[in-house]
Structure of Phosphoserine aminotransferase:
Amino acid sequence: MTTIYNFSAGPAVLPKEVLQQAAAEMLDWHGSGMSVMEMSHRGAEFMSIMDAAQKDLRDLLAVPANYQILFLQGGGLGENAIVPMNLMGKRPEATIDFIHTGSWSGKSIKEAQKYGKVHVAASAAASGFTTIPPRAEWNLTPDAAYVHICTNETIDGVEFQFAPEIAADTNGAPLVVDMSSHILSRQIDVSKYDVIFGGAQKNIGPAGLTIAIVREDLLGHSLPVCPSAFDWKIIADNGSMYNTPPTYAIYIAGLVFQWLKRQGGVAAMEQKNIAKAKLLYDYLDSTDFYENRVEKNSRSRMNVPFFLKDESLNTVFLAEAKANGLLQLKGHKSVGGMRASIYNAMPMEGVQALVSFMQEFARQHS
Amino acid sequence: MTTIYNFSAGPAVLPKEVLQQAAAEMLDWHGSGMSVMEMSHRGAEFMSIMDAAQKDLRDLLAVPANYQILFLQGGGLGENAIVPMNLMGKRPEATIDFIHTGSWSGKSIKEAQKYGKVHVAASAAASGFTTIPPRAEWNLTPDAAYVHICTNETIDGVEFQFAPEIAADTNGAPLVVDMSSHILSRQIDVSKYDVIFGGAQKNIGPAGLTIAIVREDLLGHSLPVCPSAFDWKIIADNGSMYNTPPTYAIYIAGLVFQWLKRQGGVAAMEQKNIAKAKLLYDYLDSTDFYENRVEKNSRSRMNVPFFLKDESLNTVFLAEAKANGLLQLKGHKSVGGMRASIYNAMPMEGVQALVSFMQEFARQHS
């Protein structure tokens, strides 16, 4: 049977070991006689799963003690409203600064306008979202309520290669970061950010779980219209158990965190991700048959959009890729072409198989 | 090995057949080479799972064609805000009527006050929430924005045995129903309600999925502050795919729906649930060792709170129950005592085992 490699942008490939353990434990978790899905979230069994998941994530990202880790629902699109609803209560008239780097930050800008005054401090629109605007070109607002960036644009395939310093230009505004599609793929210094959030369905686990890492002094500033179930302070005060959390998704995320630790943690994953991305980009840069349009120093290690120069071959490319076990390579409809998402759980062998297939396809159709 | 019966109030027991199928399909769903967790929500494979789940739920509840079935996130507590945010845009000054029947409707009342004027049209507080106030005693508001009821109170163990008529007293206000903890356990006429919602983690599937069934003409009346990701009209227009849905939870829910159909559907489940509840309540009424305090015609078929007359025996009761494979019987902290939740997936044998244990425990400690 052909080995399957799944390049979906999310929900995305999970480590096989994690799925095997989940299957083995499905009917009876650790001799409890229950599936994790059947456990009361307030029982000792699930509490141990929740505590381990939070602690392992804290270890993996070296989250400082003055940051809370919250497990939420609603995904990145939900968080686009939940972030301003949680931060705008203190100074509702203050301006929210955004850096517009692609599809996801664009959605965040649109949604935030419901809850405050919005200023786009820099935009890569003129480049067709193939660059990250350099920090020097950002036109930040003094006394901004906060500054929002998306450090990896899943659809456009651009990624921040730096942690921006914004304090001097904003009088110390909090930096809010959507890390949905590259969290845990590279080392970060959490203390350089103030709020980090992300949907789980790329590098963490199943869709339906959202992670937020929030500096404690930013809790308690919600707008009056913020639903209790999405109020970070209420969620933090209740250990992410104010409403019933997505227990099974948290369990799978916990298994992924354990798997990451066995792989050597985020530093080791980053080295693997650099090697995987290099293999694919080097090939793309070596051929005229395919093309990646992102500026080299803004390229994402996670999401690699590319185009066949002859787009009339797209359908046959996708069909032959699928026949070779290379799944979900179709690009996002707003960009077109192809996209290979090569998250943590994608092994080097998957990228090698993709490049080999692309070479052979190019040879046959040149 | 002792057979395990899990009486958790939620997340709760699931049909063993469903868990077995989920385990078997975990690494490779229907020859796709992917786990359901790894599938793009927009791919053909997951779309077929989503479509089947929606269609099966529509069949099971005979949902009329002018109602949309929405798959959401945020649970019942989330919906306490999401309901008024979706319904109050048309007439923000109108009054929301509530029937206060216990813990859950109490939480709904508190949260709704953020979004509109609230009137408690009837309350069972004086009885300690052991009754459902008869319809004749409701003091409804003419031209109410909507009327909110919770037809099964998970914590207090009371359940509506009737579908209230409210049109005449309210000039046709919509009737909104929280059915979280008894949906699919008894036959209902959906057309007698206007919005039905519920968290999945009792009779449907894993925590993290919320179901809403909304009459179509009620879509599009959201408040400006309603987050897009929780705006029913946007969710309906996007087939519950505006943001990435909780795909694995939807898959499990779909397997539960298929299981329900194999059991003979809701009508057959209702007969089983009547028999299970009768066995337990009949025993409780026959003994002085235990007590259920709910008025007989308001008793829930799903959640049966009970007390040992000698509460000093609580700890040993729970320990011995667990040793006999009877799990998660501790009552909610706000009520105390014990609680047996006997949802669809609890077989008659589980209730028989519970009653036998209770009889033996009473004999030994009388």
